[in-house]
Design brief:
It is built from 2 helices and 8 strands, in the order βαββββαβββ.
């Protein structure tokens, strides 16, 4: 029986820029980083008290998709949005009720690599 997702790969064009974005602006923690002599670079990020990790991998395609690449649950979305706005994070869609549930508040932001992130709170 499955217990949890260990990690999800997030393709990025610039690992250093993405690492700074996710740690300094979004608030994830660097859990592990290892660089190989052949150019290999493994960057693993996490959320306090969460098992699932996010691994930044070099993008091999032309650009990011148009659908959300990651979906986060935030305990205080409005406060986070204000913090992100002050740090220069692009807010794509301001917090708004989800069409399927007015108790669920959603917003989308764009990361340093152009990926769309869906943020949700209840």
């Amino acid at each position: 029986m499955l217990s949890h997702v260990k990690f999800v790969n997030l393709p990025v064009a610039d690992l250093e820029r993405a690492l700074a974005f996710y740690t300094d602006r979004i608030g994830l923690k660097l859990k592990w980083r290892e660089k190989g002599s052949d150019g290999w670079d493994f960057v693993e990020l996490g959320i306090e008290r969460a098992q699932t990790r996010i691994v930044l991998v070099r993008r091999t395609t032309e650009g990011p998709g148009t659908e959300p690449a990651l979906h986060f649950i935030d305990t205080d979305l409005r406060q986070s949005v204000e913090r992100w706005r002050k740090s220069g994070v692009e807010i794509v869609a301001e917090p708004h009720p989800a069409p399927w549930d007015p108790e669920t508040i959603l917003c989308t932001v764009r990361d340093s690599e152009g990926n769309i992130l869906l943020m949700e709170t209840h």
